[in-house]
Write a structure and sequence with these properties.
mainly alpha; globular; 5-stranded mixed sheet; about 525 residues; about 65% helix
C-alpha cells in the first residue's frame, strides 16, 4: 500500500512536470508568433535568399538582378518563393514561414529524442531550445539557419527510422531526399551524410541491424549535388571550399592556408566552442554588466564540461546518429573560418541541451549514490533554479524585443537595416539628394542599393590604395559610404580615405556612418 502510494505520487509529480514543460512550450510559441512582423530585417545573406525567392517566383531562376546567385545553395530561396508567389511583396508572410519552421523543427526534435531519454527530458530539451535568445533572434531573420535546422532534424528522424525498423527502399529514398534537401539549404549538411554512413556501418558491424545499402547509396545523391554546386561556384567566383582555405576569407592577397595552418585554426577555434556555454546559459551572464568576466568564464566552462561529459557518455553507451552528427558538425564549423560566429551553432541547439542533460543526469546519479538525501535535494533545487532563471532571461529578452520588431525608425518603409541604422539614413539621404545616375561605393552595395536606388560598387579588399583610387576614377564614382562598424572598412577603406584627404570631402556624418564625396586626381 505504501509503495503504491509513493508510486502514485511519483506519477503525479511527473505529470505536473510534464504539464509545466508543455505550458512553457505553448507560451514561448505564442511569443514567437507575436514576433512575426511586416519588416524585412535586411542582412547581407538574406538579400540573396529573398532576391532569389522573388526571382524563382517570377520564373527567372535562382538569380539576383539577372545574375546567378553563387555560393549559397537554393533551397532557402525555393521555400521563400512560395509565400513570395502567394503574397507578393509581403515580408510578413516570409517571416511567418521562418517562425513556423522553428516550431516544426522542435516538434521533430521531440520525436527524435524521446526514444533516447523519454518524454519528460525530451520535452525539457525542446522547451529550453525554444527559450533560447539566439534561436528567437534568428526566427525574425530571413536566413538559412532555421530552414537548415528543420531539414537536418527531419533527415535524422527519417534516417533513424530506417536504421531501427525493417523498412523498404521507399523509406530509404525518402531519408536520402531529406538529406539532399538539407544539403541544398546549407552545405554543412555533409555532416548528416557522414553521420548516417557512420551509424549505418557501426550498426551493421555490431549486428544490431541488417545492412541498409539503399540508405547508404541514397547518400551519393547529396554528395554529388554538393560537389557539383561547389564546382559551379568555382566557375562563377568564390566557393565555400575556396573561402575555407583562404587565410583571410574574401581577401585574395592573403593567400591559402597550409595543412598545419588548418590544424592550428581548429585548435584556435576550440576556444570559440565556449559559445556553447553562452547558449546554455542563455547569454544571461554576458548581458549582466555587473558580473565579472571571470565568473562568466567559469559558468560557461562548467556548462561546456557538462555538455562534453554528456556527449562522451552517450558515445560510450551506444554510438548513435545524433552523436556522430554533432561531432562532425562541430569539426566542420571549427575548420571553416579563422573566426567563429555563434550563429553557426544554431542548428544544433537542441543537441547542446540534450547532451548537457545526459551529463547532468550522470552527475545527479553520482550524487544520489554517494551523497545523502539533503545533498540530492540541494542539487535538484539548484537545477530547478537554473532552469527557472534560464526561462526568465529568455522570456524577458523576448518581451523586450517583440515591440521593437513591429516598429522602425523609417515608418512604414518595409526594410530596416538593424545592424546600422545610420548607414541606412545616409543611404536614403543619398537617394534623395543625388542624381539617378550617380554612383557610390560601400562595403555591401547589394544591400545599400535597396535604399539608394542607385548602382553601388564594392571597394577592393587590398591594402594597396592605388587600386581603390583607380576604381573610383575609372568608374566615375562620386560618393563613398562608410560603415564605421565594419572591420573590413576599418582595415581597407578608411586608411585610404585618411591618407588622401584632398580627394575625400566629408558631406554627411553620423555616429556609426559617414558619407564622403570623391574628387579624382587632376
Amino acid at each position: 500500500m505504501v509503495n503504491s502510494f509513493w508510486g502514485m505520487m511519483r506519477v503525479d509529480k511527473n505529470r505536473q512536470i510534464g504539464a509545466a514543460i508543455a505550458s512553457a512550450f505553448v507560451l514561448l510559441s505564442i511569443l514567437y508568433l507575436f514576433a512575426v512582423n511586416p519588416y524585412w530585417k535586411i542582412t547581407p545573406d538574406s538579400v540573396l535568399y529573398v532576391s532569389g525567392a522573388a526571382s524563382i517566383a517570377a520564373g527567372e531562376g535562382y538569380t539576383q538582378q539577372g545574375r546567378p546567385v553563387i555560393l549559397y545553395p537554393p533551397m532557402t530561396s525555393m521555400i521563400l518563393s512560395i509565400p513570395s508567389l502567394l503574397f507578393p511583396g509581403s515580408y510578413l508572410a516570409l517571416n511567418a514561414v521562418t517562425t513556423i519552421l522553428v516550431l516544426l523543427s522542435l516538434v521533430l526534435c521531440f520525436a527524435l529524442l524521446r526514444k533516447h531519454v523519454g518524454d519528460l527530458t525530451a520535452g525539457l530539451v525542446v522547451a529550453l531550445s525554444l527559450g533560447s535568445t539566439l534561436l528567437f533572434d534568428h526566427s525574425t531573420l530571413l536566413l538559412s539557419d532555421v530552414p537548415y535546422m528543420f531539414f537536418s532534424i527531419l533527415a535524422l528522424v527519417l534516417a533513424q527510422n530506417v536504421l531501427e525498423k525493417d523498412s523498404g527502399w521507399a523509406r530509404e529514398l525518402l531519408a536520402g531526399t531529406a538529406v539532399l534537401t538539407a544539403c541544398m539549404t546549407r552545405l554543412v549538411g555533409l555532416a548528416l551524410i557522414l553521420a548516417i554512413i557512420g551509424q549505418g556501418l557501426v550498426s551493421w558491424s555490431k549486428k544490431r541491424t541488417s545492412a541498409r545499402p539503399g540508405l547508404l547509396l541514397s547518400m551519393l545523391i547529396p554528395i554529388l549535388f554538393s560537389c557539383l554546386w561547389e564546382c559551379r561556384n568555382l566557375l562563377l567566383g568564390p566557393s565555400f571550399f575556396k573561402l575555407s582555405l583562404q587565410n583571410e576569407p574574401w581577401v585574395e592577397e592573403s593567400g591559402f592556408i597550409t595543412v598545419i595552418g588548418l590544424m592550428r585554426r581548429l585548435l584556435l577555434n576550440v576556444r570559440a566552442y565556449g559559445f556553447v556555454g553562452a547558449i546554455l546559459s542563455n547569454d544571461g551572464l554576458e548581458n549582466g554588466p555587473m558580473i565579472p568576466f571571470y565568473l562568466r568564464l567559469v559558468v560557461w566552462s562548467l556548462l561546456c564540461l557538462l555538455f562534453s561529459l554528456g556527449l562522451a557518455l552517450a558515445l560510450r553507451r551506444k554510438i548513435a546518429m545524433t552523436e556522430l552528427y554533432t561531432i562532425v558538425f562541430l569539426l566542420i564549423i571549427g575548420l571553416y573560418h579563422p573566426y567563429f560566429e555563434i550563429r553557426w551553432l544554431l542548428p544544433i541547439i537542441p543537441f547542446l541541451f540534450y547532451y548537457t542533460a545526459v551529463g547532468l543526469e550522470f552527475m545527479a546519479e553520482q550524487v544520489r549514490v554517494r551523497g545523502g538525501p539533503a545533498v540530492r535535494k540541494l542539487v535538484y533545487a539548484c537545477f530547478g533554479t537554473c532552469v527557472v532563471c534560464y526561462f526568465a532571461l529568455g522570456t524577458a529578452h523576448m518581451l523586450r524585443a517583440i515591440p521593437e520588431e513591429h516598429i522602425s525608425p523609417f515608418g512604414a518603409y518595409p526594410i530596416k537595416y538593424t545592424f546600422n541604422y545610420d548607414v541606412q539614413r545616409l543611404a536614403m539621404w543619398l537617394r534623395d539628394h543625388c542624381a539617378p545616375d550617380e554612383r557610390y561605393l560601400c562595403q555591401l552595395p547589394h544591400i545599400i542599393d535597396f535604399f539608394t536606388e542607385r548602382a553601388g560598387y564594392s571597394f577592393p579588399l587590398t591594402r594597396d590604395p592605388s587600386k581603390l583610387l583607380e576604381l573610383l576614377t575609372s568608374q566615375q564614382i562620386k560618393y563613398v559610404l562608410v560603415d564605421k562598424k565594419k572591420g573590413l572598412v576599418q582595415e581597407f577603406l578608411l586608411p585610404t580615405i585618411e591618407a588622401y584627404p584632398d580627394h575625400f570631402s566629408l558631406i554627411q556624418d553620423a555616429e556609426e556612418a559617414s558619407l564622403y564625396e570623391f574628387a579624382p586626381p587632376a
